[in-house]
Amino acid sequence: MIRDQEFLKDIASYCIENSKKLGATDVGVKVIHSVSENVSFRNKKLDVSNRADSFAVNLTTYIEKKKSSINSSDLSKSNLEKLIERCIDATKITPSDENNSLPDKDLMSKEIRDLNLYDETHYPNDKKIERSEEHTSELQSPCNLVCRLLLEK
Fold this sequence. Notes:
Structural class: alpha+beta
Low-confidence stretches: none
Number of helices: 4
Helix content: 25-40%
Strand content: 25-35%
Order of helices and strands: HEEEHHH
Number of strands: 3
Shape: elongated
Radius of gyration: 21 Å
């Protein structure tokens, strides 16, 4: 399941807005989309092709100097609502700690540089197999095949 960067931003915005509505003074959100693909060859023929796609959200809420975090791999709106409520409830009963807070805004960078960390590259399965087969004859070991494919991406 390929999701674009806007989808991930929408999840983060939803969590921040709803956490603040329920009383959070500060909120930190990480939305993770991980894709893993594995292609194996045996005797120069395709043996195994696997793909794993996962999503997760990590929510940290602050109420003054109280802090709580919670994680989930279910990004449905109904689950996010429950997740936010539980995180806020846990934050309310957590003891205060003078060191719990987000960084001071004045100490943070004013300019956000694009580090180009989001990879939107996607090859259809038939293209991956075709590319892999092209390189198999040139390579001596499966390790070299994997290394070469990763470097060419």
